[in-house]
Amino acid sequence: MTVPVFYSISDDFTKYAAVSLNSLVKHANPETDYTVYFLNQDLSGQHKQDLSDLGIQNVHIKFFHIDDDIANLYNTELGNNLFGACTDSSIQYVAKMVKYIKDVLALDPKKYINSGMLVMNSKAFRDEHFINHFMNLLERYHFDCIAPDQDYLNEIGEGRILHLDPRWDAMPNENTKPLKNPGLIHYNLFFKPWHFKNVQYEDYFWQSAKETKFYNELKAELNNYTDAERADDREKLNHILLKEDKAEQDPNNWARVKEREAVKL
Known about the structure:
With about 260 residues, the protein is of the alpha/beta class. It has 12 helices and 6 strands. It starts with a strand and ends in a 5-residue tail after the last helix.
């Protein structure tokens, strides 16, 4: 087992972090493996080396650069909301899914969020016993969901979701123009550039892929993916949507349970 340890520092805090890291190294259990991550934006090469030099055989030092945009997203003021997320743009043109959200979940499709990117209010989750509430609903009803984790989050968080700029969960689709400045790209469903060609935002993926040792492997995966496999991927969505009819008739679907009791926090 590896114990992860995280520091979040700026360059001018290197010397303080070094003292803390040195103490951690000196007191580390020699029988335990540790990986220390430094989340940073501006650490100099010299300071990275200084911190790396403090590592030992069972204490590994790694650095993770936080993009300014990501840092700004992390610093989003959530207030009393349970989490921040983006409206699920990928389902707005899928008639069966829109009907499911309206009739089975009894939610507004325009406010239905995608759970692929969340800024979570962890304190509220803990203080308000989100996990206990989730487990209670799961054990009592085990709702037959099209998008299990996503549906539970939308239902439990209803009214306490901060809707973020859609650029933070830019999802490729065939019905809208691409966003000009996507912050995070979510290659969902069958819009994966390593399996499909001419996917929205694919240039971002391949530009980054070229800078990794996996570029050729990813290109080979794309080239070897067959049209039959692509057709199967598209058909999977239709298969999932078949749940809508059954779920709509379920006496214990979300809409009917909400007529009897509150499910949101």
